[in-house]
Specification:
It is built from 17 helices and eight strands. The chain is α/β, with parallel strands linked by helices. It holds the Pfam family Dynamin_N.
């Protein structure tokens, strides 16, 4: 185990890093990033363990051979084909042992003193024909505190190696040492060319030249097992051992222990901050989009409400035409001449009234037509509104999120909007026009005519009787003549008075019904329009409310992330000053 409590200062630094990792772990748990939470948890548990030195590279580059050469014993399987399918953690032990940690990790012990402060991690090769091998390696690399990258002299710095190095330095920012293996296959001049090639390409990618040590793991293993000092020196394995076991002193290892998780957090935080900022931007865009759609809804509602006034005007025209027809009928038929003529005709006044006033362009039929036209208009436009909502959700929201079950469904509302019960108030109100039923009004007119005729006959009869009575006396009676004249005049005024009275009562009833009809039209249709607008608005606004909630949550995450990021940078600066 690494003696992390060697100094109070180091102990304090380690504790601060551990506390930070625990806070970061809780943060990623809250936001549901299970994968990163697991990585942070692994680093927190690993911080008190020996330094993790990961040996990485393509398969057949000599990774396992290098570990065997360090140990001077073939403890790992090696060969020209992908031989390592698990991550092997090689630590110190009094004897050689091996046990599986899980499906992808194996722990081995070996009695090498250098392993007391360093755990050597052998990884499956990258660019393996077995895709899982590379995935296993990449899933572990965050735990590396220093990386020995083994590349082969017979195919150095391949495209897959470039990709893997970008992961190492770009995302994880790990301390890196290049081992150029299999130099026994190349001349000194060729080795120099290869080193220069690697340095130039690496510099082009990362802006600095790497530390490169040329070795022959094959010669190193042979030398250590045979005790050949000359071959051992030629293999350069001692230079590697000196670098990792001697130059990396305690303080260097402590720096790597502290800085490795902090650099990891810095890169993760930067990536996450970009993603969170993008989420906020998406939320703002969607909220603005919803608000613009709600504005379109309000505009459409106003258009529909204004259009309904057209039907109010048509209804007023129906009642105006009815009053005109009644006036014409009363003026033409409700008088002495027409009454006398009708009395001797086979057709009655009420039949004429029903036919001429309520027959052609029946007001009730006209009102029902207007109501049905208005219902068709509202239903048609309600369907257009639902189509707008449906298209909006598909085009503006479902591009980024899968539409859930709460989304408006055009088909559902199209079919339900035509259900008769939705307009029951409108259709039932039409029955109020029974107050102006043709037969009832014809009967009223007939009674007016009958009453007028009887009154006329009586009064005119009295006037005639008075005149005849006075004429038999051969004595002119001025008073009698005046009375007879008055009675005769009253008789002739009966029809105009009754006609005026009936007309006044009829107009009052028509105006009252017209007002109720128009108020009903406006109220009922606005209610139907408002109900649909509100329903659609509620469905659409639920997306806005969800985006608002998302934005608030993301902003909270950004604030928490900023705090953690500042703590991380403070610890990095503190470690740098030390």
């Amino acid at each position: 185990m690494l003696e992390i409590a060697k100094t109070p200062e180091n102990q304090d630094n380690i504790e601060q890093v551990v506390n930070l990792l625990q806070d970061v772990k809780k943060f990623f748990y809250r936001i549901g990033d299970v994968e990163t939470e697991k990585k942070v948890s692994e680093m927190a548990a690993q911080i008190s363990e020996p330094l993790y030195m990961v040996v990485a590279g393509e398969y057949n580059s000599g990774k396992s051979s290098f570990v065997n050469a360090l140990c001077g014993k073939r403890i790992l399987e090696d060969g020209p084909t992908p031989s390592t399918g698990k991550i092997t953690l090689l630590t110190y032990g009094d004897e050689i042992s091996s046990e599986d940690i899980d499906d992808h990790q194996n722990k081995m012990t070996y009695p090498l003193d250098a392993l007391k402060d360093i755990t050597i991690v052998d990884t499956p090769g990258t660019n393996s024909i077995i895709e899982e091998h590379q995935q296993i390696t990449e899933s572990f690399i965050h735990r590396a505190e220093v990386v020995l990258f083994v590349t082969s002299a017979d195919h150095p710095f391949t495209e897959s190696e470039r990709s893997f190095l970008q992961l190492l330095k770009g995302k994880w920012d790990r301390k890196l040492l290049f081992l150029l293996n299999k130099i026994d296959l190349k001349t000194d001049e060729e080795q120099s060319e290869i080193v220069t090639f690697i340095e130039k390409n690496f510099y082009r990618l990362f802006g600095f030249e790497p530390k490169i040590i040329t070795i022959s793991t094959k010669d190193a293993f042979v030398a250590k097992t045979s005790g050949d000092a000359e071959v051992l020196q030629k293999s350069n394995i001692e230079m590697v051992e000196n670098f990792i076991f001697e130059k990396m002193d305690y303080e260097t290892k402590m720096d790597l222990k502290i800085l490795s998780p902090l650099k990891y957090l810095t890169n993760v935080f930067d990536d996450l901050k970009g993603g969170l900022d993008e989420k906020v931007s998406h939320c703002n865009t969607e909220i603005k989009s919803v608000e613009m759609f709600e504005k379109r809804l309000r505009s459409k509602r106003q258009d529909m409400t204004d259009y309904i006034l057209k039907y109010k005007t048509e209804i007023q025209s129906v009642f105006s035409r009815l009053k005109e027809k009644v006036d014409s009928f009363l003026n033409y038929y409700v008088n002495i001449r027409s009454t006398i003529t009708t009395k001797f005709a086979r057709e009655k006044v009420d039949d004429k009234f029903k036919r001429e006033v309520f027959g052609m362009a029946n007001p009730r039929t006209e009102l029902e037509r207007i109501i049905n036209d208005a219902i068709d208009y509202v239903d048609r436009n309600n369907n257009i509104l639902w189509d707008m909502a449906h298209d909006y959700i598909e085009s503006e929201i479902s591009l980024q999120r899968k539409i859930n079950e709460e989304s408006p469904k055009r088909k559902e509302h199209y079919s339900s909007s035509r259900e008769p019960e939705k307009h029951v108030n409108l259709r039932e109100f039409a029955n109020q026009f029974q107050e102006l039923d043709g037969e009832l009004e014809g009967a009223r007119v007939y009674r007016v005519v009958q009453g007028g005729f009887i009154n006329f006959v009586v009064l005119e009869g009295l006037a005639i009787a008075i005149i005849i009575g006075l004429s038999t006396l051969f004595i002119p009676n001025i008073l009698g003549l005046i009375v007879a004249g008055i009675l005769a005049g009253i008789g002739f005024s009966i029809y105009p008075l009754k006609r005026k009275k009936y007309r006044s009562e009829f107009i009052q009833r028509v105006d009252a019904i017209s007002e109720r009809y128009n108020n009903m039209i406006q109220f009922e249709f606005e209610k139907i329009i408002d109900r649909v607008i509100e329903d659609i608005g509620n469905r659409i606004s639920s997306y806005r409310d969800t985006r608002w909630s998302e934005r608030e949550e993301v902003n909270r995450q950004i604030a928490d992330l900023k705090k953690l990021s500042e703590q991380t940078k403070d610890l990095i600066r503190k470690s740098g000053n030390n």
